[in-house]
Design goal:
- The structure is a single chain.
- With 98 residues, the chain is mainly alpha-helical.
- Helices cover 46% and strands 10% of the residues.
- It contains four helices and three strands; from the N terminus they run αβαβαβα.
- The protein is flat.
């Protein structure tokens, strides 16, 4: 298993340049979890999204989201998955795989 200190390969750095990330089912209540999120979104797009439960979000987690341009989406995980899957089905319907 690689640690968070392992250098990220150049090809990965190039691929994620300009990407936006959607963090699903993540909590940011631990320093290690925040470090992983920070490293994942580093050198990518300026805006990212995180599906969160606002009822359990701590003030520190909210500060982390704001500081790292993670837009919180207060939507249930199951509903979010329904939306994402429906969107994928629409893409396939509009552009059938050949």
């Amino acid at each position: 298993m690689k640690s968070i200190q392992t250098p990220i390969p150049d090809i990965i750095k190039e691929r994620r340049n300009g990407w936006r990330f959607l963090l699903i089912g993540c909590r940011f209540n631990d320093q290690l979890l925040r470090s992983y999120a920070r490293q994942t979104t580093k050198r990518s797009a300026n805006v990212h999204y995180a599906i969160v439960n606002p009822e359990v979000l701590s003030p520190n987690e909210l500060c982390f989201l704001v500081e790292h341009r993670l837009t919180p989406l207060a939507i249930g995980l199951l509903r979010a998955m329904e939306i994402l899957l429906a969107n994928e089905r629409r893409k396939t319907d509009c552009h059938p795989v050949r």
